[in-house]
């Protein structure tokens, strides 16, 4: 969030800089609102600034440049309450009458609950909640105690999707901020069948930002012990896994978030068979394959992908699925020793995955040798890789030695 800075003289006489959030600044003057009012376009300005703009004969909204058929100015009480709350923390700078934080939170709650609230009112309210929920854990606890976490979930699951992408996005921002605090129990709303259907629908039809935020939420759910049962329910949801795999294969800008969601769901052993059946391994191999040719900055999650693949290969169904994939072993071999070798953990998982495959399958051993695994392993053993990676490499070399010697004798 962009901010402007105001100078303030502290009690000890030193000059301090106070950053004012963009939400609290008039887009015309760039100063803190003193009397926020909203135009028919939904944009909010300081009364003095917009009145001056209109007095000069301008009949457009300064931000959107839409022509104004209605120049009435509606006081934005919700934003005024937020400004008063913000000023409370910087009271030596201002002389604004202050109201209680509880009243401010009650107003936000009312705006979300009141059926007659306009979409613009809900947007303003959600922007404020997003800002407040990104503050301290104390502020997050206050929002949860006031019931705003449940209301955000209701917005996510009940608000019409058509033409309301920003509402859904802002609700998700607030949910993610609050879920890191004490809001985990409220997430059990996801156990409801209609809410699960809505979640999958948003993953399919939502904006890229909505999809990314939902993947972040799935990752958070899978990472918390308090939502273990919910993670199991999500992991058994076949359509959910199918959509996640399709997003991973799509190579879009939300691919990294999707990868983390899939890997987090697969952290529970009970979820792995469903994930394999719905194509998770195919998605992981495709991700690893593209990462081989990507820049180092985009490879930061490769270790996570290879590690998850190794977990999936610990089961018989995982090994069978890998044996059906045309390039699975070849991609794993390339991951054994990457140049530049910027992820030693990825190498360890790649060798571990190959060890699992080659221990049970003559064909896997043949495919690995044909793909050049012996050279890769020797390079790994001469590198600065960790001892665990080298130990696995030695075990795999020993396993492949007999096969290699037999092939050489037959030449």
TrEMBL record:
Sum up the protein's function in the record's words: Functions as an E3 ubiquitin ligase.
Stored PANTHER family = U-BOX DOMAIN-CONTAINING PROTEIN, WDSAM1 PROTEIN
* SUPFAM superfamilies in UniProt: ARM repeat, RING/U-box
Top-level EC class: transferase
Q: Which UniProt keywords apply?
A: Transferase, Ubl conjugation pathway
The pathway where this protein functions is:
Protein modification; protein ubiquitination
State any single GO MF term: ubiquitin protein ligase activity
Q: What is this protein called?
A: U-box domain-containing protein
Q: What is its EC number?
A: 2.3.2.27
Residue span, U-box domain: 19-93
Q: What Gene Ontology biological process does one annotation of this record name?
A: protein ubiquitination
Domain of life where this protein originates: Eukaryota
Catalytic reaction annotation: S-ubiquitinyl-[E2 ubiquitin-conjugating enzyme]-L-cysteine + [acceptor protein]-L-lysine = [E2 ubiquitin-conjugating enzyme]-L-cysteine + N(6)-ubiquitinyl-[acceptor protein]-L-lysine
């Amino acid at each position: 969030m962009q901010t402007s800075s105001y100078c303030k003289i502290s009690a000890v006489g030193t000059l301090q800089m106070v950053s004012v959030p963009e939400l609290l600044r008039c887009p015309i003057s760039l100063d803190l609102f003193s009397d926020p009012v909203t135009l028919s376009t939904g944009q909010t300005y300081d009364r003095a600034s917009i009145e001056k703009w209109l007095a000069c004969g301008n009949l457009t909204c300064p931000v959107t440049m839409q022509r104004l058929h209605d120049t009435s100015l509606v006081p934005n009480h919700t934003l005024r309450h937020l400004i008063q709350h913000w000023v409370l923390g910087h009271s030596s700078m201002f002389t604004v009458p202050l109201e209680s934080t509880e009243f401010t939170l009650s107003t936000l709650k009312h705006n979300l609950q009141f059926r007659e609230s306009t979409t613009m009112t809900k947007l303003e309210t959600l922007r404020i909640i997003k800002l407040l929920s990104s503050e301290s854990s104390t502020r997050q606890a206050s929002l949860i105690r006031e019931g705003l976490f449940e209301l955000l979930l209701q917005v996510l699951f009940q608000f019409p999707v058509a033409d309301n992408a920003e509402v859904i996005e802002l609700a998700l921002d607030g949910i993610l901020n609050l879920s890191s605090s004490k809001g985990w129990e409220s997430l059990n709303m996801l156990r409801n069948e209609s809410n699960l259907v809505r979640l999958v629908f948003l993953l399919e039809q939502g904006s890229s930002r909505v999809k990314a935020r939902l993947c972040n939420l799935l990752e958070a759910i899978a990472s918390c012990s308090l939502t273990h049962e919910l993670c199991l329910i999500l992991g058994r949801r076949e359509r959910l896994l199918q959509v996640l795999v399709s997003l991973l294969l799509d190579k879009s800008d939300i691919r990294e978030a999707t990868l983390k969601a899939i890997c987090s769901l697969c952290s529970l052993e009970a979820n792995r068979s469903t994930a394999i059946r719905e194509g998770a391994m195919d998605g992981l191999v495709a991700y690893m394959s593209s990462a081989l040719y990507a820049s180092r900055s985009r490879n930061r999650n490769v270790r996570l992908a290879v590690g998850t693949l190794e977990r999936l290969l610990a089961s018989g169904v995982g090994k069978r699925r890998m044996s059906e994939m045309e390039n699975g072993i070849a991609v794993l071999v390339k991951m054994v020793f990457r140049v530049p070798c910027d992820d030693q953990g990825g190498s360890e998982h790649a060798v571990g995955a190959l060890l699992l495959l080659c221990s049970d399958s003559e064909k896997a051993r043949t495919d690995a040798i044909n793909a050049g695994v012996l050279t890769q392993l020797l390079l790994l053993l001469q590198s600065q890789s960790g001892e665990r990676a080298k130990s696995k490499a030695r075990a795999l070399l020993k396993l492949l030695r007999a096969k290699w010697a037999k092939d050489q004798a037959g030449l």
